Batch of 2 targets.
Target 1
Amino acid sequence: MSPSNSRGLRELGLIALFVLLVACVPMFTRSGATLNFVMMALYATLIAQAWNILGGFGGQFSFGHALFFGSGAYIQAIAQLQGGINPWVALVLAVAGAALVGVFVGALSFRYGLKGSYFALVTLAFAEVFRILALSVPFTGGGVGLMVPLRESVANMQFGSRVGYLWVVLAFVAAALLVSWWLRHGRFGAWLQAVRDNEDAARAVGVNPFRVKLGAIALSGAFMGAAGAFYVQVFQYIDPSIAYGPAVSVEALVAAIVGGMGTVWGPVLGAVVLHLLADLTRNLFGELPGINMVIYGVVLVLIVIFLPRGIAGLGVSARRLIGGGKESSHG
Amino acid sequence: MFDPGILFSSVLNGLTTGAVYALIALGLTLIYGVLHIINFAHGASLMLALYAVYFLKDRLGIDPYLALPLVVPGMFVLGYALQRVVINRAGHGKDENILLATLGIAIVMENLALIFFKSDTRNIDTAYSLATVAIGPAMIAVPKLVAFAGALVVSGLLFWIMGRTDLGRAIRAVAKEKEGAKLMGIDVDHVYAMCFGIGLACLGAAACFLLPAYYVNPQVGGGFVLVAFTIVVLGGMGSFVGALIGGFLIGIVESLGGLYLGESLGQIGIFVIFIAVVLFKPEGLFGARA
């Protein structure tokens, strides 16, 4: 077995261990606050992982990931309210719908070779268009938003305690970890990272950058849509500024960048660190609206200046120092 | 669908708004043209300038137009410092890093404003806030006319600085050939910071002209960010004339869009133009290349 293979298997084991440990958290504590913290940290991890698929592995920085989040959320809510569809089925629709939105935006952007800052701004513009549309069309309930009625049962994906929600979002995080692992070690991920690092070179060796980026944005959109649907199930409410406003987009990209882009564990690290920071500031300053975002913004600037590889990059640098750079191909 | 009088007044209104948009976009395009970075904090900086104008009037009774000599230098210093202390260090050779740094700055500015000034929308009362002037069949608010004239004067000043002064020559030299300019003894970091400062000073001027006919709240910048980018992209990144004409165009589009589609849906026109231009004509109408 090649060293890269055994390393991949070890990482797979680590993922299984992590998921198992988090799944068992409810056995050790009944505290609502703790369970809520874990659930929200997992939710933040999920949106960071979704962003990381396209932004980290694919190098396409989106400023408008709310586009997929909001689409998933609205599909989840509207399917239940207007179609009378079971939430579990709606979830599938939400994930597929958000992926489709990704394919649509990606097909337009990548067909015309948008990159870097231009791509970031276009995704933001698309999110704004969707936000204004959601305010204007009748079936989203406009600015009032949509409320999903409370009907507690597992069949309805509405749980009496946070435990059920925790397991649902953990399942998605686990799936995203596996996808990230696959991107790190599989062929599609190699193509995607090749396109990120040098599109012309990738094309020269027979990779189709358009297709690869389209695949990445669909995957990324799908996970973001799942997060949106999950949001609707937990809070039973959605409106245009929650769905398509900039807050979700910012949260997703900051967590991924702070943790370390293009890595399996970066988004987990970033989301947990940011959530701990947010909790800490809440204890220090009380409930000040906006204080969380100030912290996120400051951390983002500091990370970009001092640690452009994120927290996960710290480990890599340290390992390089100790291991004499022999594992540099996995950097 | 509408009678010519309403159409005429709508276009005229669009032109006056467009002049202020152009001023905002000029700052953005200057920063882009020289530093080759997209300043995502442009809207948030404008918001800060608007608050400065608001508090000068509200607390000290200083008229917005008389606040120009305070707000413009203040914004210049802020821009100079931001570029030197934060943005210059964030690049690491990648555009995206700068975009992220300016995004971080925008988030911090907006949310600090939310913490300190609350989310209330504020506006100021001046003797001329509601005054209007008849131009043909149209009634135009006096502050809008002043804004129109003021934006043109400041734009002219900017053209003069760029074309006729040593600073302007240094800026153009750096924009064209950074390494060569460095060899000629030009302090590139200083020129970069000057550009950023001037770009934000434009926002200071825009804020003074804008507030008598407008309002301020912590989120007000967000709307201007995409509008300004649309103008800059439409006019061609880095093109001054393009930004000026683009500003007028977008002002008219917004005004007519509001007339035909209603206030909220009318805004979509701007974003659709932005997406369409970036996708199909990224070099803009007047730019040589993107």
Target 2
Amino acid sequence: MTPDEHQRHNLFLRSFTAQEPAIRAFVRRLVPTRADADDVMQEVSVVLWEKFDSFREGADFRAWAFGVARFEVLAWMRDKGRDRLVLDEEVVTRLAEETAQDEPRLERQREALEQCMKKVPADQRGLLMQAYQPDSRIQEVARGSGRTVPGFYQWLHRMRRILLDCIRRAMAQEALS
Amino acid sequence: MSTELESLIHRYLDGTISADEMTQLNARLLADAEARRELAELLNLDSAIAATAAGWVSEKMEPRVAGIAPRALIAFPAAVRWLAAAACVALLAGGGWWWRTQRVFATVVKDAGVEELSHGAKLRGETHELKAGTVELVTARGVRVVIEAPAEFRFESAQRLRMVRGRLAADVPPAAKGFTVVTPSGDAVDLGTRFGVDVPASGAAEIHVFQGEVIAKASGGKTKQSLRGGDAVTMDQGASAARELRSSAFIQPGEMPGLTAGLAAGQRARSDAALAALKNDPSLIALLDFESGDLQPGVFRTVQGRWPGSRAPEFVSIGDHLKLDVGADRAWPQLTLAAWVRLDRLGAPYQSLVHTDGWSRNNPGQVHWMVTRLTTMRLALSGNTLAASVGERDGFPDSRTPVLPEQGRWVHLTTVYDSTRRTVRFHLNGEFDKETELSTAHPARLGPAQMGNWDRSDRKLSGRIDELLLLGRAMSDDEVRALFAAGNPYR
């Protein structure tokens, strides 16, 4: 690398590192599973670096990255998503637009999870973390918790419901204060 | 929000939705912005929980590593981690990237003389600089990494370690295949194996493979190279060149328990006391511990000795040597030579411990102390001859036992020469090994000499010498045993 390229690469890494969680969350909202999001993210990071030359310094990196990510999600759906139960392409397009607009609020929601997780009893929190491990098998986690698999899914739905309600309340409070 | 829609979204999210239900869900989402918002928020929460859970991995693994019953793993570590996460948020108020920074990539499981990191410390994406000592880490995927100071490094993920400088040995289980060490001059991608990476303060990085397979790629280079057990490369300017394996250059996980126990038992203080006593010995010719002041002239690297933060010369490249000029004023009827060394098994014909310049029958008694191709210790004095009854393979006094272990570690070598008794006695790690009788035994002559090489032809030693003692009398077996016991870094 020449010093110039090196500097450019550093600039990219700084921007990308800062925005990676937001880009990942953006992708996650458009594809069926977290593993699919990982798949797409690998592609996205490569394409972002390849196209970084066309990115004007000082412009909004996140908005630019969302544009690239949206394109990659649609490409992924046409390629790998064909035989899968996925969101309608039109739904994805609208979701991408709306959630890109709504990202500041969605980001605060993600941040508010921390406070809300504290209110979950420790044993349930541990179980949730187990269920969300990258390689976890729900059957095993369910068995370990003494629940049937459908029962465990019901429990997961309930936990997410409780957490989302808590997050919304926290944000409403924040808006008042 | 209708419970029917909500349960469709949850089933989509868990991958348990049916094709009919998916059609229903798509129809709802297409028609209803509020439904899309609900979906977006639930999936957004899903990412956030996953990001939190990613940091939780190593918390879960740690008790197993530390040998604590896994029963306590759910409640307690999570509570501790939330405090850390809260501190993180406070610092980075509003920055979305704390999700990344809070992930734990590796945990310290052993520390020998490291001030910056202690047992149980969690490593995330921050840079660490170690001035002294050695530390052993376990990554979230179970890779064992030993890093020796001076070092600067940071984890970019549990599978990616950036080494700015320093030396590491990694033991990679199959689950962590693909573990990558990034250096300024190239990358090492591991395919499930044991390997070492050396990034010197100046100069090219090296990759050494002890077992399995590693892919090496020099920065800026186009080609990748597959390295197998026993292979090593130097990476420089986009190209990698094969080199000899430095089997002892890296502290391996197996060596850490002995080193930490040695430090805890106060071995360093015992060693200092023994050295102080030797400095008052009237027969002392030279005692080099390489700690104070300028090091002797020569060409070598200065690296860590057997104590945290201590110094030792390391000989790596052809021509490396350290110059010495002691004891020239007289001849020495008795001479004890002792050293703490950490040497590679190179198969080179000779590795020089101490070689006086030249070698001539006109100047009898010149001392050449070395490790041979068979990794035995040898003491040759010019003009000396073996006793008739002695059967030495090469015609010189050699130790019986090979002195270099298969896997590198510190060893203590002693040879006691007595021209009045016409004997050469070898000791390995304080234990008497063998005595060779001579028929001609000249008093020893010292003066200008090299450690790690010879001025006549290359007899490069590969590795480190941490301490060298030259004593103008014959040490007894008990003294040699005590010298080893006091300086031993292991317990």
